[in-house]
């Protein structure tokens, strides 16, 4: 369970710290965010957050609990917690999830398109960097 220091912060201090955190993340590119998170969070925490995000996106796409459980090895209570987040989410949250789902789908389609055979029957692979 997450713990906060016993020395309480004022609301102004909390707001200032969280605003600084969000601003810092907003200024980083993908590579920098990945590096920052790898230093900031443990490997277990990264997997935990990645699974939560996957569950949220899957639920948004009406994937069944059973399919999610089998796919990423999570328990039903974990999925239920993410479902509760979806139930209280606002329109901005849904827009973000929908954007992430569309982005993932377009990256998957680009991958599939890159594997289409060339006219001479050879596979062509494009690496985007």
Describe the structure.
It is a single chain. With 129 residues, the protein is mainly α. It has 2 domains: 12-89, Trp Operon Repressor, Chain A, CATH 1.10.1270; 90-129, no CATH class. It has helices spanning 11-26, 30-40, 43-60, 65-72, 76-88, 91-114. 4% of the residues are buried. The model has no long low-confidence stretch (mean pLDDT 88). Pfam families: Trp_repressor. It comes from Candidatus Gottesmanbacteria bacterium GW2011_GWA1_47_8.
CATH homologous superfamily identity of the largest domain = TrpR-like
What would CATH call the architecture of the largest domain? Orthogonal Bundle
- In one word, what is the shape? globular
From the alpha carbons, calculate the radius of gyration and give it in angstroms: 19 Å
How much of the sequence lies in strands comes to under 5%
Instruction: Report mean pLDDT, rounded to a whole number.
Output: 88
The helix/strand class is: mainly alpha
**Share of helix among residues?**
55-70%
What is the string of helix and strand elements? HHHHHH
The CATH C-level class name of the largest domain: Mainly Alpha
**Secondary structure tally, helices:** 6
**CATH fold name of the largest domain, please?**
Trp Operon Repressor, Chain A
Q: What's the main sheet like?
A: none
Measured between the Cα atoms of the first and last residue, the distance is 39 Å
Number of domains: 2
Low-confidence blocks of residues: none
Organism: Candidatus Gottesmanbacteria bacterium GW2011_GWA1_47_8
Pfam family, one: Trp_repressor
InterPro entries: Trp_repress, Trp_repressor/repl_initiator, TrpR-like_sf
GO molecular function, one term: sequence-specific DNA binding
